[in-house]
């Protein structure tokens, strides 16, 4: 939040968008040093769907209390509802492909891996409450029920201590409103795509103290590859209830169901080169299948205390299940046009509970307004996995693999399958505190710390083996923000994080957690009354104690000696240049150095991160003249070369997207989106000799009609 004012014959009141000075009556020469603190107005910030535009005043990701983007000394991006709608994003991985600083390793929509700064986002929070996000389990969330997506890059160890170094993603729910409103939306496109969505909200009593919202969405994702059917349904139900003038209870249920005929990509040719095949080529069995279901329940109680304090108690319970069984290429394509066939299958059951209780309070010190937050949280993640992998499904041709006989990989005893039946449990209780202190008006010093009590347990049921590790690590955080003027701020920060590992050492014990740290410096700008935000940043991450192979290459254990250094820079501009002209633009540079090798797979991931990436999207809405009612948009996504750990190389590429919309009146609007406008051929991802070599999507046209009331 932005603070202004001093204590010279005045009292400070919180009104509008800043702390404003109110003159007080006094006798000549008398100095009244009273300060009235009424709370952080950012708790009342408008939703992005109501405010419109391509940016927001503030974010909560990595901060717990809402703060102005300029006052968060780390790299934060916010993708608003309008930006999501303009570009037709249905799932988080679709959004990440076209968001500055994020990298997606393509798979089916809703099952892709999302990265930043070389690390995968392994958790996704809803309103600050985390749960695991794993691509293979299909837990990448849809977007229909969310108002905005807040993305932090770099460690978030103060409030998400056991998360990955890449950062944290926070999805902010759409909320019920007292005013009756809603929309119906239909979309159809090439490659059998269609979307149907209904959204209705309003007061459920005459006074507006009870408000509800219901959203239902049915999505058929485009089928670029033969047989690669991908259907998704999600439902969202929410209630907000005012218990009194200061207290609100919120409950919500989010449901997501996926059904996919899995595409696992293409093999390479006999000499290890990428094949020149039609983009529709499917290398897998027509019986390939993935089904998943996710249900999230959320309860939240908030209270506004006298003197500006704000308290929140919230809980999220996630129940996930997934089962899959599919075949794919098991080798490179031989000279005679044949390849072996591999398969994988799994039955996954996951439960996740996240609890959080926090209290924040602005206060006066040294004539300025500062703020502290204290809290405690708890999370319990449990994943039961019965999985199997095989390379023994025979040999066939590219065309013949579609027709291989059905195999129940998990249960068919006639096939040689490597099976695992595991339970992984992660439990953590933490206490945290953060202080934002302003010794002078233009300087904010942020310090914080977290003490965690964690336990990780790993059970292998087939071998009746079990191991666990626990600890009480402290993770610290420090930052500073200096306002150069009304538009620009310099910032610097230091953040820590740790990540438990399930690899075992020579004695059969789990390795100690990885430890990570980041230093970041940058310049942030806010222009046009906060409608446009800019950031330039430089960062360095160090990752220690990664699981690595011992010197004895025949040994079947790991040592915690892997070490990686990642550094780079980012530029981002997002918001509205005018009320009609919106823009999102970004450039990211990453340089990775593996100082001590870890596993070939883990180190190989860094090779799939391009050194250079560019994202641009701009949209203009005409409000007068012959083109009144029209809006036009265009964008570019460009990446430099990538290479996998198995030596599969793909050149860089740039694709262009475009949109044209027309608003008939306040109720009816239409939109036409074209992705890959020039139908560019490219590989969006490379992998091994047999799989995960993914061609980019062809030119796709989508038409949308929406009716609002």
UniProtKB/TrEMBL annotation:
It is found in: Cell outer membrane. It comes from the Bacteria. GO terms for molecular function: siderophore uptake transmembrane transporter activity; signaling receptor activity. This is TonB-dependent receptor. The lineage of its organism: Bacteria, Pseudomonadati, Pseudomonadota, Gammaproteobacteria, Oceanospirillales. It is a multi-pass membrane protein. GO terms for cellular component: cell outer membrane. Keywords: Cell outer membrane, Membrane, Receptor, Signal, TonB box, Transmembrane, Transmembrane beta strand, Transport. PROSITE patterns: TONB_DEPENDENT_REC_3. One of its GO terms (biological process) is siderophore transport. PANTHER family: FERRICHROME IRON RECEPTOR-RELATED, HYDROXAMATE SIDEROPHORE RECEPTOR FHUE. Gene3D superfamilies: TonB-dependent receptor, beta-barrel domain (2.40.170.20), TonB-dependent receptor, plug domain (2.170.130.10). InterPro entries: Beta-barrel_TonB, Beta-barrel_TonB_sf, Plug_dom, Plug_dom_sf, TonB-dep_rcpt-like, TonB_sidphr_rcpt. SUPFAM superfamilies: Porins. Its main location: membrane. Residues 69-168 form the TonB-dependent receptor plug domain. Residues 279-677 form the TonB-dependent receptor-like beta-barrel domain. Residues 1-20 form the signal peptide. It comes from Terasakiispira papahanaumokuakeensis. Belongs to the TonB-dependent receptor family. Pfam families: Plug (PF07715), TonB_dep_Rec_b-barrel (PF00593).
